[in-house]
Design goal:
By secondary structure, the chain is an alpha+beta fold. The chain contains 3 helices and 5 strands; from the N terminus they run E-E-H-E-H-E-E-H. The protein is 27% helix and 19% strand. The chain binds FE2/S2 (inorganic) cluster (FES). The site of FE2/S2 (inorganic) cluster (FES) has 12 residues, from loops.
């Protein structure tokens, strides 16, 4: 542990912030200026703030809360956590999933580019 906190890195862009133990990933993302979406204000109500944690980093966060387990269901087993509920225990890197709207636009553009080649 560094004296002044733990580094939290948000992929895929790599924004980072150093925070104290107990800080939620959502608060860390705001400090890092990473784009974690939220609609419920951080009360495990919207599922929009989910991030993915590598299996080897699971113990870098607090255990899932009951609300988090209920909300995420099987996604929890795939490494997803709610950033408004998961709190930092040590340095960690998490991945922010691509925004669904952006993903749809990207796929459409890729299809168009593929069609243009033919
Ligand atoms: S901010 Fe809504 S579930 Fe986390």
């Amino acid at each position: 542990m560094r004296d002044n906190g733990f580094e939290v890195v948000f992929g895929p862009e790599g924004q980072a912030a150093t925070v104290r133990a107990g800080t939620t990933l959502l608060d860390a993302s705001r400090r890092a200026k990473a784009q974690v979406r939220t609609r419920c204000g951080g009360v495990a109500g919207c599922l929009m703030c989910k991030v993915r944690v590598a299996p080897e980093c699971e113990d870098a966060l607090t255990a899932p809360t009951e609300a988090e387990r209920r909300k995420l269901g099987p996604l929890l087993g795939e490494g997803f956590r709610l950033s408004c509920q998961a709190r930092v225990r040590r340095a960690v890197r998490v991945e922010i999933p691509e925004d669904p709207l952006k993903a749809a636009v990207r796929k459409q553009l890729e299809r168009q580019q593929s069609d243009d080649l033919w």
